[in-house]
Amino acid sequence: MLKIKLLGIGSDRYDNLKKDTLASVEEMGLSYQLEEVNSIDDILHYNIKSIPALWVNGLNAPRIFEHQDWENFIKYLNIMKKDILFHKKILVATDFSSAATNALEYAANLANYINGDLYVLHAYTIRNKAGSLASVRNVVRNDAERQIREEKERLEKQFGSKLRVLTKVVERDTAKSITSMAENLNADVIIMGTKGAGALKEFFVGSTAVEVAEKATRPLLLIPAKSTFQGIEKIGAALEDVSAKELAALNELPQLAIKLNAKLEAFHLYPSDLPETVKPTEVTIDDMTFPLNYEPIEGDLFSNMNNYVANQHYNWVCFLRKERNIFQELFHVSLTKQEIFRSDRPILILPPVAVTKTA
After folding, report:
1. I need a labelling partner for 9 at 20 to 30 A (CA). Which of 35, 91, 225, 263 fits?
2. Looking at the domain that runs over 88-217, which CATH code has it been given?
3. 71 near 50, Cβ under 8 Å?
4. For residues 265 and 184, what is the distance between their CA atoms, to the nearest angstrom?
5. 2-85 and 234-350 agree in CATH topology
6. What is the pLDDT of residues 20-64, one digit of tens each?
7. In Å, what is the CA distance from 359 to each residue of 82, 114, 163, 185, 187?
8. DSSP label of 337
9. 238 - beta bridge partners?
10. 2-85 is classed in which CATH architecture?
């Protein structure tokens, strides 16, 4: 049930906000409970800048909408309505390494947090000549199925009936299996760990994660080896040129941020020796406005980005994949040579053209 608190004191603006709110939630067929908070002392506990305002607890943690945020509130209601109708789908790829197991744990907590289904995929290839023997193939297959079954049982014991876990084992190229399954599922996000596998297993995150990042039509979230899920409060989207085309390609990001009840802001790093110009302080993505921060830098781009991301306390850092940009240099280096960009934050990579979800 959608819980709404109307914060304010008697005024025409207050009355209109109440009337419009009730009309909107009823038109969308959402069940709700409305509480009016009119005491100034009580209102001060909500840390709002102006009244009237709406306090809403519908998806995850509470969210505040002030009267000027009406369009964002309607957007929130629409996304919530879709959330009620459709399960969200998270696909996590594992090779059973410690980093992959950590990513699986992160994915399970994320799925539980947004009331989604968790799909666990293990894809493998047998490259030596012995792999042609049926007995060897059976041993490898049986071992993989045992491990993925144990992971499923562990998660079901940990989360109970709150989390639905579905598993799949395939003998096929790993990157192709991941991108194909994500597209077939119309997954909300693909999740992978950012460390390689052990001996005798396919090197997982070097070439594989880069290939998935380059070819996936769904968002890809890369989880550092020591990262743990503690909710998502703030997402930073790195912009290269702040163009209309770049912003249009980020259209899925506001919906994802709303599902996570996370604050979203964009940032652009630029050389400090460039002439000063008037810069916008907001960007519009999918008809919603978000803060845009500019940060002048000197010297190495990647170390500056590390420092900026840490200082802003982003839970996730989002990059848009393009044909040729910072992303290719950044990720080919960081995932294969493990140099330069050593962020301890999960990294969200969006495909260049947003793929519209239908279910």
Report:
1. 263
2. 3.40.50.620
3. no
4. 31
5. no
6. 999 888 887 776 788 999 999 898 888 788 888 888 875 445 677
7. 9, 16, 19, 9, 9
8. T
9. 267
10. 3-Layer(aba) Sandwich (3.40)
Q: Are 328 and 303 in contact (CB under 8 A)?
A: no
Per CATH, is 234-350 categorized as 3.40.50.620? yes
Burial degree of 171 (CB within 10 A; 0-12, 13-18, 19+): middle
pLDDT digits (tens, 9 = 90+) for 88-145: 899 999 999 888 999 999 999 999 988 889 999 999 988 765 555 677 788 889 999 9
Domain coordinates in residue numbering, the chain: 2-85, 88-217, 234-350
For the stretch 279-290, pLDDT in tens is: 788 888 877 788
Whether the CA torsion 197, 202, 203, 209 is positive or negative: it is negative
Tell me which amino acid residue 89 is.
K
| Residue 342 burial (CB count, 10 A) | 11
pLDDT of res. 320: 82
Radius of gyration for the chain, computed over Cα atoms and rounded to the nearest angstrom: 23
- Between helix 134-159 and helix 98-113 the angle, nearest 10°, is 40
Task: List beta partners, residue 34.
Answer: 4
Whether a cis peptide bond, with omega within 30° of 0, leads into 52 is yes
Name the amino acid, one letter, at 322: K
Q: Which residues pair with 294 in a beta bridge?
A: 268
How many residues comprise the chain? 359
Which tokens is 6 given?
């109307």
